[in-house]
Amino acid sequence: MSEQLPPTEQCRSCKAPIRWARTQHGKHIPVNAEPSTSGNVLLDHIGGVLHAGVMRGNQLAAVRRTDRPLFLPHFVDCPNAGEWRKR
Ligand SMILES: [Zn+2]
């Protein structure tokens, strides 16, 4: 079972509330604190690690039919996204 999501942190460039999560590929990505109807990331907090399941295509469509919240990676709508690309 997924645990409650960890507390949020602030984006270093725009101060928006975000959470850092680890993708299937072991990469850490910032995810917006609030779920979004256009989100494509499932969050699972397991054993103290926040896992980001990045969904695509049919998988994403299937999750959207459930009531699980989906989150948007923060670099999609960070007003300072230009800074993210440099990293
Ligand atoms: Zn930001």
The proportion of strand residues reads 25-35%
The run of helices and strands is EEEEEHHH
Shape: globular
Main beta-sheet annotation: 3 strands, antiparallel
Task: Compute the number of structural domains.
Answer: 1
Name the poorly predicted regions. Answer: none
- Helix content estimate: 10-25%
The quaternary organization reads as single chain
Which sequence of strands runs across the widest sheet? Answer: 1-2-3
Q: What is bound: which ligands?
A: zinc ion
Counted beta strands: 5
Task: Give the termini separation.
Answer: 33 Å
Kindly describe this structure.
This protein has one domain. A hairpin with a 2-residue loop joins strand 4 and strand 5 (49-54). Strands 1-2-3 form a 3-stranded antiparallel sheet, with no helix packed on it. It has a two-stranded antiparallel sheet with strand order 4-5. By secondary structure, it is an alpha+beta fold. The relative contact order is 0.24. The chain has helices at residues 57-64, 74-77, 81-86, and strands at residues 9-10, 17-22, 28-32, 41-46, 49-54. The mean pLDDT is 92. Bound molecules: zinc ion. The site of zinc ion has 7 residues, from loops.
Short description:
The chain has 87 residues and is of the alpha+beta class. The protein contains 3 helices and 5 strands; from the N terminus they run βββββααα.
Fill in the keyword field for this structure.
87 residues, two-stranded antiparallel ribbon, 21% helix, alpha+beta
Helix and strand topology:
Elements lengths: L8 E2 L6 E6 L5 E5 L8 E6 L2 E6 L2 H8 L9 H4 L3 H6 L1
Bound molecules: zinc ion.
Zinc ion binds next to loops.
